[in-house]
Amino acid sequence: MGAVQAESARLAYWDIDLNRDGPGLLLRDITRGKDDQIAAALEVIEAVGPDVLVLSGFDTDAAGATLAAFVDAIPEVGYAHRFTQLGNEGRASGYDLNGDGLTNTANDALGYGEFTGQGGLAILSRGAFPLSLAQDFTDVLWADLPANTIEDGTLPDGIEAVHRLSTTSHWVLNAGPLQLLVHSGTAPIFDGPEDRNGRRGHDEAALWLQVLEGRLGEPVEGPFVLMAKVNIDPKDGEGRPGAIRALLAHPRLQDPAPKSEGAALEATPGHS
């Protein structure tokens, strides 16, 4: 893979929170052109205009119609390429994952969601960064991840054969001269003492350690960027910090730690 030719490129990850209560409703709201939340999101994207934009929390569909309509609403930025596909969000597991006696709720899905595609992942890019899927780890079973943190009692009996690691998806995408390592992890709360969500969130981040160190999938070579909502703080919060600390210290990665005045204003008081 050749070196990056451009002097600079702006890449952004935004947990955009464009999700609705049923399939097709976000597409409806985009095409109507009257939704204030969508209008505000479009205004931000037009103002910032990153060369590559990863969106999480965005309702997707198998045909990609929702993302296509969204891109059509921001022609000024010139996103020539887009990529999305359905992941584990809202995909039925057939098991009672949260112990409430039911098997068909959003909490019982392979990734939280009322329907398949709710709050999924999507990527947009300008012409110099054509997108194609290089590797897809979305179907990797949690139990198959080397050095996973599953212990007895973490999961209901029998589910290890179907329980995927990814809350949404884990993708490696070609983006012109770059490769993108993309995922959106689960929050490390909303469970019991078994800490299923905390363990899973840790292992979702740890998957990239396995990839970068050549123990899972094909080698990632040339320039790449890891763009993810890891949902774990390396020093504060309720998550298991081991994997994110290892990623931040990894010799193949550089941490673009927020340093702006705006970032300081957004910091949680009392957190390191």
What can you tell me about this protein's structure?
- This protein has 272 residues and is an alpha/beta fold.
- Helix content is 22%, strand content 18%.
- The strands form 2 sheets. It has a 4-stranded mixed beta sheet, covered by helices on one side. Strands 5-6-7-8 form a 4-stranded mixed beta sheet, with no helix packed on it.
- β7 (178-184), α4 and β8 form a beta-alpha-beta unit.
- α1 (25-32) packs parallel to α3 (65-72) and α4 packs parallel to α5.
- The radius of gyration is 19 Å and the shape is globular.
Q: What spatial form do the alpha-carbon principal axes imply?
A: globular
Proportion of helical residues: 10-25%
Mean pLDDT: 94
Q: Strand count, sense and closure of the main sheet?
A: 4 strands, mixed
Number of strands: 8
Q: State the domain count.
A: 1
Q: Indicate the structural class.
A: alpha/beta
Radius of gyration: 19 Å
CATH class: Alpha Beta
Features:
Deoxyribonuclease I, Chain A, 6 helices, alpha/beta, 272 residues, 22% helix
